Amino acid sequence: MKLNPIFSSHMVFAANKPIRIYGEGSGTAEVSFAGLTGSVTTESDSWLIELPSLPVGGPYELHILLDGEETVLTDVFVGTVILYAGQSNLQFKLSASTTPRDAWRDEPRARLFSTERVEQGEDFHPSEGWVPCRAETAGKWSAIAYHTSRMLAETHGVVGAIGCWQGASCIETWVPAGLFRQHGICLSEDELFLDHWCENFSRWNSGGYLYERQFSQVKPFSVSAVVWYQGESDQSLAEGLVYADELSLLIDQWRADFSDPGLPFIVVQIAEYTPRYDDGWRAVQKAQLDVQGMRNGVKTVISADVCETDDIHPPTKDKLSRRIADALSTLV
Question: How many other C-beta atoms are found inside a 10 Å radius of the C-beta of residue 43?
Fold first, then answer.
């Protein structure tokens, strides 16, 4: 039996959400955490134990017994867990931002778990578990995850960030293959933005690819909220006109995957990148604004007036992060 890599020392469980502990293999698993205990015996190739929710607290130890072999995880907290998902503006690192090196800070209340990207090249890997924020390695964090985690820590205590991003990814790859078609969204290849079919990107932009290979690394771990920042790879006019429906379906699907019908979503509206600012781009922006009226528990954050317009990856991320953190604070 094996424990899923998302479980490690320094990890954070989401407060007031079911505590799910799981992994692979058959046999008997037993867990104890913060006075709670649970066990399961299974003959299947996976196992899961669900414990009741807990309020903010810690540090605790998490004891896991798999077929008699014990693992003890330390410095485990119950707090706020944010899933950061989307494409390259979330992947964008603090070291590439306008935040100067001498402003990077230790923040032991902020911890990052990174999923394995299909493109590879990430600075942190699942095998490293949850990494506390240190000044010397802060530059390897997503700039937005770094800033928002530090800001939320001031009001929410311990914050866990989960990174689930892939540059140049379209929205269709983040949902099960065929989901959009099942709901009547059927665009031809000629209607898609060219980046979908560039040789370097086509592999991970096929339907359902990142849903199966990257998002699946996170579910069904309970999270407090999702920050979704994506859209630059769906900028054809045809895509923009259906993007609000696609994003609504993604929200529904992910809420079902987490068994959390009210899971809050923060949608970051893409900035106004001048070289590509056309009708398709504006349609995506409008869709990202409209979706907050289409699903409860969704809030759109405007980025255009706090980001550069001459770079598809605006390097100023602290002002946008403040807006994201403020929006999260209203929902979690």
Answer: 7
Task: Count how many Cα atoms sit within 13 Å of the Cα of residue 120 in the half-sphere of its side chain.
Answer: 0
Q: How many helices (H) and strands (E) does the chain have?
A: 7, 14
CA 313 to CA 118: how far, in whole Å? 20
Residues counted in the chain: 332
pLDDT at residue 85 in the model: 98
With contact defined as beta carbons under 8 Å apart, do 82 and 149 qualify?
yes
pLDDT in tens, 2-39: 999 999 999 999 999 999 999 999 999 999 999 999 99
Element (DSSP H or E) covering residue 255: helix 237-257
The answer to whether 177 touches 208, Cβ cutoff 8 Å, is: yes
Residue 315 binned pLDDT confidence (cut-offs 50, 70, 90): very high
Q: Check: CB of residue 60 under 8 Å from CB of residue 29.
A: no
pLDDT at 194 over 80: no
Give the Cα separation of 256 and 215 in Å (integer): 13
Residue 29 · residue 64 · CB < 8 Å: yes
Q: What per-residue confidence (pLDDT) applies to 107?
A: 97
Beta bridge partners of 82: 161, 225
What are the distances in angstroms from CA 242 to CA 13, 85, 184, 194, 283? 35, 20, 10, 17, 9
Cβ-contact 117, 218 below 8 angstroms: no
Q: Which residues pair with 70 in a beta bridge?
A: 65
pTM of this structure: 0.97
State the chain's mean pLDDT as an integer. Answer: 96
> pLDDT exceeding 70 applies to what percent of the chain?
98
Write the DSSP string, 93-109. BGGGSSS-GGG---EEE
For tokens 């289409």, what's the residue?
294
Contacts of 61 (CB under 8 A, 6+ apart): 33, 72, 73, 74, 76
